[in-house]
Design goal:
By secondary structure, the protein is of the alpha+beta class. The chain contains eight helices and 17 strands. The strands form four sheets. A six-stranded mixed β-sheet has the order 6-7-8-3-9-10, with helices on both faces. Strand 9 and strand 10 form a beta hairpin. The chain is globular.
């Protein structure tokens, strides 16, 4: 039996349909991402699970218990916000302990759980430091520790890495996934970053205009998108007309070939991007994007006639 079930969950704000009959089943311990552009309904969905927004219709059940009729404070959820929402006047340890104090956990147990959770996120030596003296990544870890220390049944993450720079975000993605696997907490992540969703998730829920476009494992959604929207949102793609039908081809699947190829054209742009070259090739099918790994072998130059295959 699924652990968390959203059944035809719907939210209207006046005439605006923000979430349109969303159904999703999540297994215990699973990491699921709600992925889509701004305004697609992913954050509203998370807020309905948390109890911050009242659903118009539908249901949310957690291990067979009706969540929508349960007060937010009684739902047993841990939440990490985009802004981290740390208390600036409290130390790291005091921030982490706050939820335990609200639950009247005895002092000795509280101290042990705070120390354990700070160690889990790699900040055992930062217990007495205030948020203003921490980096963005350290503040993010404290917010995560505060959510985990209460031992939530579900961890809700609302764009938790969006305020970090690209390098730190990549590092935190790895850490977040390792921590989630260690504690085994069922996790729902909201993000607009397709690379982040694919790196972290067991499954992704691609949303568009309040509706679900596809629910699948990351590599399945990427390799076999259910719609043109999914294909375009999950990364670069080319729509090529071939033998009377339209074909979606990822740029990294296309290669330059000698002699016969499926499509011929001329290189109009070549851009170096470190571990790969990005090409644009003008063909009878329009502009085709090609990604060629930087393997040290010289590739076509701008202006060269080429043949493409995939």
């Amino acid at each position: 039996m699924p652990f968390l079930v959203l059944d035809r969950l719907t939210k209207r704000f006046g005439d605006h349909l923000a979430v349109d009959s969303l159904s999703l089943s999540v297994e215990k311990g699973e990491f699921v991402s709600l992925l889509g552009p701004s305004g697609c309904g992913k954050t509203t969905t998370l807020q309905m699970i948390a109890g911050f927004v009242e659903a118009t219709s539908g249901s949310v059940t957690l291990d067979g218990r009706d969540l929508l009729s349960t007060r937010p404070s009684q739902r047993g959820l841990g939440i990490v916000f985009q802004s981290y929402a740390l208390f600036p006047h409290l130390t790291a340890a005091e921030n982490v302990a706050f939820g335990l104090e609200m639950r009247r956990v005895p002092a000795a147990e509280r101290e042990a759980r705070v120390a354990e959770t700070l160690a889990l996120v790699g900040l055992a030596n930062f217990a007495d430091r205030f948020p203003r003296r921490m980096s963005g990544g350290q503040q993010q870890r404290i917010a995560l520790a505060r959510a985990l220390v209460i031992r939530p049944r579900i961890l809700l993450l609302d764009e938790p890495l969006s305020n970090l720079d690209a390098k730190l975000r990549e590092e935190m993605q790895i850490e977040l996934r390792q921590i989630q696997r260690t504690v085994g907490t069922t996790t729902i992540l909201v993000t607009h970053d397709q690379a982040e969703a694919m790196a972290l998730s067991d499954r992704i829920v691609v949303m568009n205009a309040g509706r679900v476009e596809q629910i699948a494992r990351p590599h399945e959604a990427y390799e076999k998108p259910a719609s043109a929207f999914v294909a375009g949102f999950l990364g670069k793609t080319n729509i090529v007309q071939l033998n009377g039908s339209a074909v979606s081809v990822r740029p990294e699947k296309i290669r330059f070939v000698q002699g016969d190829g499926l499509v011929g054209g001329k290189v109009t742009t070549r851009i170096f991007q470190g571990n790969h070259w990005l090409y644009q090739v003008e063909t009878s099918n329009g502009l085709v994007t090609v990604i060629r790994q930087n393997d040290g072998v010289p590739g076509p130059a701008e202006g060269d006639a080429v043949r493409l295959a995939w």
